[in-house]
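Quick question: what would this complex look like in 3D?
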Amino acid sequence: MPAGPHPSVEAYAQRRARVATQLQRESGALVLFGGALQTRANDTEFRFRPDSDFHYLTGLEEPGAVMVLRPGPDGGDLRFSLFVRARDRDAEIWSGRRIGPIGAVEQFGASEAFALAELDERLPALLDGCETVYLPIGRWSSLDASLAKAVSSLRRRNRDGRTPPLRYGEAADLIGEDRLVKDAAGLASLRQAIDITVAGHTATMRQAKPGMWEYEIEALLEYEFRRRGSTGPGYGSIVGSGDNATVLHYVDNRDRVRDGDVILIDAGAEWDYFSGDITRSWPVSGKFSGEQRAVYEVVLAANLAGIERAVVGSNIDAIHEACLDVLCEGIAELGLIESLTGPGAAAQIREEGLYKRFYMHRTSHWLGVDVHDAGRYTLGGKPRALAPNHVLTVEPALYIAGDQRDAPERFRGLGVRIEDDVLVRAEGPEILSAAAPKQIDDLEAIIGSG
Ligand code: GLY
Ligand code: MN
Ligand code: MN
């Protein structure tokens, strides 16, 4: 395991204990599947990446595993059962080592562990008498089928004293609410993911040169992630230069970077399956042109105004509104809509939603195990109030596409997004990605510095 913070077995146990407190209220049990290998082509597979909820509660990284969590009656001992692939010397020679049931108990703290082949036989007894079974509804057909068999077996045997569950509940919601408020281990993993992400971004700022290909720059970035022990990017790295930066999810990364281009890199390293999510946009030559600088300054001011609102009791809509205020003023002042400048222009751009030509997405999302992390955004129909240990992004942008005919030509083919990862604390926002340069002087000093 690479050097750096990793949650202890105890930290995973604490997560299970918190979720169990919720389960206990409804006499519930939780059943999760760790995920299966996914075919890439023919008989080759993608590298395994465990299901986020499953890994968050177990730390286990093996395909095919199943977890059953069941609080004891009256808050008694929590039963944490794991089903894993049986040890198999021949299979392990071909496809890698397996933890096996004994390893699941000894290394992952399971109360009991069995071979996967025993799942259908043992599941009814594990669910007997619980009222709600939480599962990722409809996500894994094999898990749905095993549960349906278990429930129907308990129903058939009701006259023998077995008690089938009464309802299914959505596991993603139950666990999502826990994932939203980062615990100490989660925060340590996330800080590490973000620190590595910063190192990747700064490495590209130093090394990228006009004339390189976007994929070369992607490789520089991801080399830095991997050499620091990250499992790799938490989502497809976006490396878009010039007009490509105006495509929100551009992951082709196959054009040549021209002198004079601004490059937009949106990328995040994963650590213990927590992901960073940082965007920086900078001139590959090392100097912004006048137009690029003017647009950059507007987006930077929006980014700073949004971060200022990332405080306890505020909400994601308030952050978005703060960014829109700055962006709409900027669109008017820059004259990005040629027919709309002067007094009242910013208000009209705001009220009529004209900014959406240049800024068509929202400003923030939760960040954690998944780049777009779990946890409800609204409570009772209202935006959820930010609370300590929420982590979110603030990512305002302006995109002036090459074919945006109502924008002055000198601005076209330019995309600027500045995305930071922010921890909400009682003392105010902490910018976890602060070490990634974003002030113009800092950028111009580091770009091309080797
Ligand atoms: N990289 C995806 C996002 O910024 O939301
Ligand atoms: Mn983001
Ligand atoms: Mn991003």
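Answer marked as accepted. DSSP finds 13 helices and 21 strands in the chain.
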